[in-house]
Amino acid sequence: MQHSERQQRYETKDPDRPVMPAFYMPAMWPVDLQQWLVDWFVAWRKRRLYRRLLRLTDRQLRRRDLSRPRIIEKVRLPLRQVIAEQRSQRAHENCRLGR
To answer: How far is residue 73 from each of residues 2, 40, 69, 82, 90, measured CA to CA in Å?
Structure first.
């Protein structure tokens, strides 16, 4: 694989994700690990938000146009699935924006 092919393979269209440099040295920060950690943290925060929403009464939820069964469903999702949904939404947004 030539250098230009490798560079095209690692270039990203996602503005939230750091761009892989043209010359990658082994001592550099692992970019994929960083994105993985960010995805897990965001998924964990979402689950925590849903659990806090469950503390509200049904009336308070209705005022916010939320339903308790939907929130319970979101709380029970495994973090892996939440992350997969986030990534698919991000890919869809990037595709829609033409990135």
So the answer is: 47, 19, 6, 11, 21
pLDDT digits (tens, 9 = 90+) for 43-95: 999 999 999 999 999 999 999 999 999 999 999 999 999 999 988 888 888 78
Asked whether 67 and 61 are in contact (CB, 8 A), the reply is yes
Other C-beta atoms closer than 10 Å to the C-beta of 58 total: 10
Residue 20 identity (one-letter amino acid): M
- Residue 4 phi/psi, 5° resolution? -65, -35
Report yes or no: 81 and 40 within 8 Å, Cβ to Cβ. Answer: no
* Residue 25: predicted pLDDT: 67
Cβ-proximal residues to 14 (8 Å cutoff; 6+ apart), any chain: 90, 94, 99
CB atoms within 10 A of CB 68: 14
Q: How far, in Å, CA of 29 to CA of 47, rounded? A: 28
